[in-house]
Task: structure prediction
Amino acid sequence: MIKVIAADLDGTLLGTNHVLNRTTYEAILRAQRAGIRFVVATGRDYIGAIRTFNGFDLGCDWIVASGAEIRNSKGEVLQSIPMRPENFPIILDRLKGLDVHTRFCVTGKDYVIGDEEEVMKNLMEEAKLWLNLKEGENIKENKEFKVAQQRVRCIGSLEELLAENLAIYKVFVSSANLEQIALVNERLADLTDIASASSFVTNVELTDVKAQKGPIIKQYIEERGYRMDEVMVLGDSLNDYSMISMDFGATIAMENGMEEIKKAAKYVTKSNAENGVAYTIDRLLAVQGRQVKNGNY
Result:
């Protein structure tokens, strides 16, 4: 019997416009009314994640920044795992000479080393990789781009950033050149206290090795008295691999997901464009409803 559902956001719970729609929202409400606990598990930070809910209130818990932070339904921080500052000079040194853009992520802000003109140019290049722009649409007028732009803070040097004494949860590295992305992972592979994952083929997301969705979900559910076989997880990209590859009761890949995720999952559901999460929830409720009615649980 599934008692907890943990779902990724982009490419999974959200539609292609990166927001939660009413169909999926109402399916989650049905699950909650049936006594199932719902958890968001995303690479976004809390501020970026809650904005995607489009005004809907689910009263759910949050595993954000790829597992670097856990928040309850009130938005209160229950646990945080920032990266170790001594790793940042090593990361930047290893990335020298690569054609990549690097952001240091804290809750609500992304810090980028460089001047505003250079940072804006890089941000626009990065946004083109993941925004669903309509033909002829001006990227500067795109709502998602404006939000990303507002998050960014330019900073002169790593030393200046470290002097701020911020809790940096993630280093986000992106490039349109997939060979360069592959080199990022190669150059950082020996840093055993850092985890590397990807939301898209064009990026690498670095966190503390303890801040990974799968192990954090396991910790979260066990602290609340649930068993692994009582958990369903849903995801689509490589930053979901740590949870999809674990032996939870049901591991679900989206039809639009990366092939590695589909191969690792126990099941594949419909795409996010087809409201795959809502479809899966309704199938689950139907099956569990029959089990209860027939006295099999």
